[in-house]
Design a protein that fits this description.
By secondary structure, this protein is mainly alpha-helical. The chain has 14 helices and two strands, in the order H-H-H-H-H-H-E-E-H-H-H-H-H-H-H-H. Helices cover 64% and strands 2% of the residues. The protein has a two-stranded antiparallel sheet.
């Protein structure tokens, strides 16, 4: 006999599927065919850790938002977004483009993944400027590429561990960082951390460069007002943004002087997402990860099987 929670999960499965498809339309990745050619493993393949971690929607969306928050603390990285992005008018579009990039580089056939990387590299060459305090920056600066990469994979992992599987083996964690650095290096990053110990040491080194300033506050103001074009837009934003704040390390929370970065509110959102995350997993059975599994002739269930 099904439990009341299982019955409720079945009832909300289709609305959740529609919510995700509306927020992140499938055509966001262009004409990528994730199901062909048969046997093409892409950059990683089904035996990788990155395929498993990036398949979890709740962990990835909350982790992606958490990474955006962290990135507001780096003046040079923030300047590239502040001066050259249309985030003020289309923050949803920016999130969708990031989602498309992560999906393509993780799951697409090799030629499509490489094409996506080259497209982003070309965009980066056009992003240059000077921060308010006179520091020159460039989006293709290897150091800035490493910062953006580290904040993303660090946050994706924290999202996965909190909202999907907290007891992830330490060897799998190190494999995830080692695998994912290939994307950063393909974009031009150098000295990319390849293990949890290296990630933690890197963040310790970069912390003296970080600060919360007026630009940081402005970007966070816009992020906290983001309105996804979905039903229950306000509660949805509150749930995922709060769950994202719950992933931030204590040192980042100490820097972030913003009312939306409330740890008590974040804990409530984090607990709520932990409860509904399994419903997202059961509802999203036909996304790009599942299509990539079909391309490789393996069952999608491998995406939730450990150890590797």
């Amino acid at each position: 006999m099904s439990s009341p929670l299982q019955l409720l999960g079945r009832a909300v499965r289709q609305p959740l599927r529609q919510w995700v498809r509306t927020a992140f339309p499938r055509d966001q990745a262009g004409a990528i065919d994730y199901e062909h050619p048969s046997g093409d493993p892409g950059l990683f393949g089904p035996g990788s850790v990155i395929w498993k971690i990036h398949a979890d929607f709740a962990g990835m969306l909350s982790g992606g938002l958490s990474a955006l928050i962290l990135q507001t603390l780096h003046p040079a990285a923030l300047a590239g977004v502040y001066d050259h992005s249309n985030f003020r008018e289309d923050l949803v579009g920016r999130l969708r483009r990031t989602t498309a990039f992560v999906g393509a580089t993780t799951y697409a056939p090799r030629h499509a993944a490489q094409r996506m990387i080259e497209r982003v590299r070309a965009i980066h060459t056009q992003v240059r400027g000077v921060t308010p305090d006179g520091q020159a920056y460039a989006a293709d600066d290897p150091a800035l590429l490493t910062w953006v990469h580290v904040t993303e994979v660090y946050s994706f992992l924290r999202g996965y561990r909190r909202y999907c599987r907290h007891d992830l083996p330490a060897t799998a964690i190190d494999r995830y960082f080692d695998e994912s650095r290939r994307i950063a290096e393909a974009l031009g990053a150098t000295d990319v951390p390849a293990s949890m110990a290296e990630i933690e040491a890197y963040l310790q080194r970069v912390r003296p460069q970080l600060r919360f300033d007026a630009r940081s506050r402005e970007v966070l103001d816009i992020l906290t007002r983001i309105r996804l074009p979905v039903p229950l837009a306000g509660p949805s934003r509150g749930l995922f943004l709060g769950a994202a704040v719950a992933l931030l390390p204590d040192w980042a929370l100490d820097l972030l002087d913003h009312p939306a970065m409330s740890p008590p509110r974040a804990r409530l959102s984090g607990h709520a997402l932990q409860q509904v995350a399994p419903w997202f997993r059961s509802a999203l059975t036909d996304g790009v990860a599942s299509k990539a599994c079909r391309r490789m002739g393996v069952p999608a269930e491998i995406l939730q099987q450990w150890p590797v």
